[in-house]
Amino acid sequence: MTKIVIVGGGAGGMEIVTKLGRKLGRKGSASITLIDRADHHIWKPLLHELATGSLDEGLNALDYRMHASQNGYRFEQGVLSAIDQVDRRVILAPMRDEKGDEILPERQIDFDYLVIGVGAITNDFGIDGVRQHCDFLDLTEQAMALRVKIRRRFLKHAKEHDVEQRHFKISIVGAGATGVEMAAEMHHAAATLRGYGYEISEDLLQVNLIEASNRVLPRIDTARICDAVEEELDKLGVKVMTNTRITEVTPKGLQTLDGQFIESDMTLWAAGVKGHESLRELGLELNQNDQIMVKPSCQTLTNDRIFAFGDCAACPQPDGSWVPPRGQTARQMALMVGDNIQKLMVGSQEPLEEYLYKDLGSFVNLSKFHTVGNMLSFLGGGMTVEGKMARLVYTSLYRRHLIALHGIGKGLLLMLLNGIQRLVRPELKLH
Ligand SMILES: Cc1cc2nc3c(=O)[nH]c(=O)nc-3n(C[C@H](O)[C@H](O)[C@H](O)COP(=O)(O)OP(=O)(O)OC[C@H]3O[C@@H](n4cnc5c(N)ncnc54)[C@H](O)[C@@H]3O)c2cc1C
Q: Which residues form the FAD/NAD(P)-binding domain (predicted)?
């Protein structure tokens, strides 16, 4: 039986494994295995909401093992450490607990087709002090740890007697969608916690949003979106610092290229992404950003049986550009890889599909304050939408992901449950 192994159950990986599991795995036409370092999936674009408590992981986390048993695939928890391309096997590193004691030994899993979708990590650009003194939003564990840290800092600062000490200075480096959304989320969290009795005065929360280029959202071309976002950040009191390049991070703050020192109690680094350094061990061709180089069919350059998609892949476009790292592209590429593997399995003479990036629009959600975006392909040209309509389209991306993973009936039920929970539980998760 053909063995298809998918490494990475993220935004794209979960969609391909669900589709192949239902179509091939359930019928016994192929054996489908998902490998992930974690034991549960949370849709990555929600991590900033998890970090502030706007999202309850209890309701939104999906257990891989349970999902596998219901959707025709097998799940193996582990970290991909090497690929034996001759004998077609992936090697998973031994799994250890927090103390370093081994839980599972090194394992080997055979494949006929291998699909890599392990996502990306935040790029620290090798700047001194970033890894040691900043927080990141790459993993669910980091988002959860950040939530505890934010709550403790709010508690500590609210109880300081010296007014100067009561200022809570947060720096967010990178004014892309993640940084901008996190800045708004911080204000939402502070306002909501104030309602729950935390003594956090609005004037004492200072959020600096720091960006090396000359505007917020440097990757979004629609001027109306950038203007609307800047306006809203200004209303919230977020200090936007463009043309500001960080050269070093210390425990007390950030040093800039032009000689300023920005004091900071907590720094979130969200300045772009790169591939995992561990990908260097796989024997595949990588670009300078540690992403796996692939052909437009998402096959790797040296092995047609190994595919890569999403944030970990560098996929060229006919105009010479590269596919951007986004949830929507990870999903589209992953589904295309699934179709291409099925063609190879039956020995089809048809050429494999090639990935052509279709921008379905960009949306930025400033917590409960505002949502703005543009609908490109939907309207065959482009139209900026704001407010409730924009919020509806923004949330529909996650809804579509839920339906792809659970089917329409269960997906709709989960959305209903989420809606009910929002009515009966605190707006922020407090424990
Ligand atoms: C806060 C935030 C907000 C965002 N908002 C948006 C948005 O609004 N719209 C949008 O389009 N995009 C958004 N993004 C980007 C989007 O989340 C990513 O582009 C998308 O998740 C990439 O999907 P992927 O399948 O390539 O990887 P991921 O979703 O990152 O999944 C990778 C999976 O691989 C697993 N893994 C990693 N390394 C290994 C290993 N060595 N072995 C085994 N498993 C491994 C991980 O546990 C994870 O499950 C946002 C990102 C963040 C952080």
A: 3-332
Contact 136, 269 (CB under 8 A): yes
Give the position of tokens 């990588």.
286
What is the whole-number distance in angstroms between the Cα of residue 120 and the centre of ligand 1?
Answer: 7
- Under DSSP, the state recorded for 218 is T
List the residue whose alpha carbon is closest to atom 6 of ligand 1. Answer: 45
| Phi, psi dihedrals of residue 198, rounded to the nearest 5° | -70, 135
Work out which ligand 1 atom sits closest to the CA atom of 312: 26
Pick the most confident of 160-164, 331-335, 360-364: 331-335
**What does the pLDDT read at residue 159?**
74
Q: What is the pLDDT of residue 69?
A: 97
Q: Which is nearest to 44 in space by CA: 12, 18, 72?
A: 12
> What value does the mean pLDDT take over residues 190-213?
83
Mean pLDDT, residues 115-139 taken together: 96
Share of the chain above pLDDT 90, in %: 66
Return the CATH number of 2-120+275-345, one of 3.50.50.60, 3.40.50.1370, 3.30.70.260, 1.10.3720.10. Answer: 3.50.50.60
Are 376 and 328 a contacting pair, CB within 8 Å?
no
Q: How far is the CA of 14 from the centre of ligand 1 (A)?
A: 11
Alpha-carbon distance of 355 to 337, in angstroms, equals 9
> Cα-Cα-Cα-Cα dihedral of 12, 63, 189, 130, to 10°?
-60
Sign of the alpha-carbon dihedral angle for 219, 222, 225, 226: positive
At position 185, the amino acid (one-letter code) is E
Q: For residue 43, is it left (φ>0), alpha (ψ between -120 and 50) or beta?
A: beta
Where exactly does CATH 3.50.50.60 map onto the chain? 2-120+275-345, 130-269
Radius of gyration, CA atoms only, the chain = 22
Cα-to-centroid distance, 203 and ligand 1 (Å): 35
Q: Which of 41-55, 106-120, 312-326 has the lowest mean pLDDT?
A: 41-55
